[in-house]
Write a structure and sequence with these properties.
about 625 residues; alpha+beta
Length: about 625
């Protein structure tokens, strides 16, 4: 006997409780009664206090586990591809796919076991922010791969050599392979990188007809998305493959010029046209068409509200300007700021973010006073000749070495072009899945699983499946996550962390008027520019960029490309030689310095600064006055 209950009735009562919880999808407080050996359920009500996480616990619920408190983490590269906080749905799809692709790379090189782990090892998520685990990346250093280099890997990922991450700590984590194993791994890696020549064309062919099948009910739609997950993972594997190929040729080039970053950026300025470089010139041409077609009314277009300007471009009166705008969206509409985040709408779905840039360019052109000459100001890619660049190098090269360097520059150029093409394709694939999840969200609202279709982005893919199976408590969790998301977006973490990342507070800019500021970073695009700084730490403030200003920001992705038509130079806290900002800056001859620590907190909007993209130096000329 258990009090007034028999053993049998206690077991029956437990089973009834399980059945009630299973039917409702959440825990309840059940009142029951027993009379003459019979059990009666009187009433049930939700238990509001059970398993309710506080806000801090909820923000860290999906954090990645670290193997130790010695793991080296960085926001470099990861912060460019996935800036800010990432939604739970994007974490479960995008970050998992990137991690699997990076694991697969190491499998192909032979430095890890023959099967990738389902647990994330390369990527780390903390309070929604994404980091790269540098200790996992270190599996591809020279301790495991012949001819590999920690210095080259550091420069590729972080934009600088991390002397603080010592060889002793790396060997403790990754070990030291014997010579024959390192040789074998090197051969494996080279074979793998050479084997992917047709993968871009294959992915391009797939995207020409691929869409996740549209279903009429939630269960079928969820299964259709799940069935196509491997296609998404394969797309990221292709992108990581071509990123690795590009990095390999950049590393070879770096060795030949003895790690002289100025020489390297000069040589890379010979790069051919990349797909993301179409965006600035296309936006400028669109502005030019508006000015030419509308003549005296062009200024009024610049003064329209964003919504009215957008409506005009979709009317018949917009003529060639409207056609040019629609052609732009057809080619680049899958792209946007934070383009790999599924929650964010691409330009095709929400083109209003393009309007301020177009209006600013129209305003700039009409202020010139000569419509006929406005085409002189269209940005065009820089087309430096390789042979002419040799004479400008600090490192003197023999005729034989020049031939080697020229050959590698051509391969590095092709590598950057292929990487950018692969990135565009993987973003397009992300957009196909974004649309599939949006359709599933609408179905879940119509079938009363969700009160708001946007809540689907605040559940992981696995949790969506649980909700469809009856776990209704996840709706409350999604609502709370959505409310906390803006807070997570404002969080900032150090570029490099050892162990669990520690949040940093907003740093104050020195209010003194003394001119003493000098910052240093990696020179990634040659040239010198002096002008007003525009510090942008929040994406919504990018619309305030004025023509000729020097953009100072944390990092850029393709969504920033339209603004490259306005700026005179670029300074970023993250990035390296083949990061997006560096590639586009070189294409258009904009001085650029990357990997500048504390740039956004040390420089203030309105400061007059001088950016030396050849030496990697930013000097403050005049301090902006503080507004009361």
């Amino acid at each position: 006997m258990l009090g007034c209950l028999t053993q049998h009735n206690a077991q029956v009562l437990a089973k009834i409780g399980q059945e009630i919880e299973s039917a409702l999808g959440f825990s309840v407080d059940v009142e029951w009664a027993e009379e003459n050996g019979n059990l009666y359920v009187l009433q049930a009500r939700p238990i509001t206090a059970i398993q309710i996480e506080n806000d801090n616990e909820l923000m860290h619920e999906l954090d990645s586990a670290l193997a130790s408190d010695k793991e080296w983490l960085t926001t470099c590269n990861a912060g460019e591809v996935l800036p800010g906080a990432i939604s739970p749905l994007s974490q479960s799809l995008v970050v998992q796919a990137v991690d699997a692709a990076m694991q697969n790379l190491q499998v192909e090189w032979g430095v890890v076991s023959s099967s990738a782990s389902p647990a994330m090892k390369e990527m780390v998520v903390y309070s929604g922010h994404v980091f790269i685990n540098l200790y996992s990346v270190s599996n591809l250093y020279e301790n495991n791969v012949l001819l590999a280099s920690k210095e080259m890997s550091d420069l590729s990922v972080c934009g600088k050599v991390l002397d603080e991450m010592t060889w002793d700590s790396i060997r403790e984590h990754s070990g030291q392979s014997p010579f024959w194993t390192r040789t074998r791994n090197c051969i494996n890696g080279i074979k793998y990188l050479r084997s992917g020549s047709n993968k871009l064309d294959e992915l391009d062919s797939l995207l020409s007809s691929f869409w996740v099948p549209t279903k009429s009910n939630t269960s079928d739609m969820y299964r259709a998305i799940t069935a196509d997950w491997p296609r998404y993972f394969d797309a990221w594997s292709t992108h990581v493959l071509f990123t690795s190929r590009s990095s390999l040729w950049i590393s070879a080039l770096t060795s030949l010029v003895k790690c002289n970053m100025n020489d390297l950026s000069l040589l890379l300025s010979c790069s051919s046209h990349v797909i993301s470089a179409d965006i600035p010139s296309a936006v400028e041409r669109l502005a030019d068409v508006i000015v030419h077609e509308n003549h005296g009314s062009a200024a009024s277009f610049a003064d329209l509200s964003e919504d009215d300007a957008l409506k005009f471009l979709y009317t018949e009166e917009s003529n060639e300007a409207g056609r040019a705008f629609r052609q732009f969206l057809e080619k680049h509409g899958h792209r946007c700021l934070r383009e790999t985040e599924l929650l964010v709408k691409p330009w095709a779905a929400d083109p209003t973010s393009l309007i301020p840039v177009i209006q600013s360019l129209v305003r700039q052109r009409t202020s010139l006073g000569s419509v006929e000459n406005s085409t002189d100001h269209i940005a065009e890619p820089n087309k430096a000749d390789i042979d002419s660049v040799f004479d400008k190098l600090n490192v003197k090269l023999s005729s034989m070495k020049r031939k080697w360097v020229k050959s590698i520059v051509l391969k590095a150029r092709d590598g950057v072009e292929q990487r950018e093409r692969a990135k565009s394709m993987v973003v397009k694939m992300s957009d196909r899945f974004r649309q599939a999840y949006q359709h599933l969200g609408k179905l879940m609202v119509s079938e009363e699983y969700l009160p708001d279709k946007e809540l689907i982005f605040f559940l992981t893919h696995f949790e969506i499946g649980q909700l469809l199976q009856g776990k209704r408590s996840l709706v409350i969790k999604a609502v709370r996550r959505k409310k906390l998301y803006p807070i997570q977006m404002e969080l900032r973490y150090p570029v490099h962390s050892v162990g669990t990342p520690q949040q940093i507070q907003e740093e104050d800019v020195d209010d003194s008027s003394s001119v003493s500021l000098a910052l240093h970073g990696m020179p990634v695009s040659c040239g010198t520019i002096e002008g007003k700084a525009r510090v942008v730490t929040n994406l919504k403030d990018a619309v305030n960029i004025l023509p000729g200003e020097i953009l100072v920001t944390h990092c850029t992705d393709v969504g920033w490309s339209a603004y490259f038509t306005l700026i005179g130079g670029l300074v970023t806290e993250l990035g390296g030689l083949i990061s997006h900002g560096a590639v586009i800056a070189r294409e258009y001859g904009l001085p650029c310095v990357a990997s500048v620590e504390r740039a956004t907190s040390s420089i203030r909007t309105g400061d007059i600064i001088k950016v030396d993209g050849s030496q990697g130096i930013i000097v403050q000329i005049k301090v902006a006055k503080m507004k009361n």
